[in-house]
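[Q] Does anyone have a clean structure-token version of this?
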Amino acid sequence: MNDLQQAISRVRMRMMLNLGLTWGAVGVTFGVAAALMVLLATRLTGVVTPDWIYAALAGAGLVGGLARAWQLRPDPMAVAVRIDRRLELKDRVGTAQAVLAGGGAAGPDVAQWITADAQRALRGMNARIAAPIEISRAWLAAAVTGAIFAGCFAFVPQLEAAPWTGAAAVDDEDEQEAEEQAPHDEEEERRR
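[A] Here you go.
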């Protein structure tokens, strides 16, 4: 692997890390939003679900986001163009990458000269300038969604039954009747 390919590889990894950070945050946001909907549905209907389901939904969102980032990973030519633009190299790296990939009718001497020129231009290249690692705004959405979920998890009470069904009132009446019957049943047993 020559210097040109190493430079492209380093910048490509940084670009993929950026994609992973961004799409991972988007996935976590959707996963936590799904967990929030399940939480509210279970708390308001009285259905009991295990707490691990919420973490599983957030984790599934993260995996989905990272899978999307993997689908969008840049090819070496796109990375070469990015290097040219960020470092103002006037298409030296992109042209050299195209020649190395077999695109173009350049002879071996011209291809060697183009590649050597790109390698000279890349000496001392800072991959941090070509592809800075950025924390995207998607993490803000993930944080807000997570805070809403945490607040609902902590403060929304678990209902025993849905209030609109009237099931709770019937259960209370049945319990009162059972408590009233219990002393009468005990007295009848003593008499026998």
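[Q] Thanks! Anything notable?
[A] The two ends are 98 Å apart (CA to CA).
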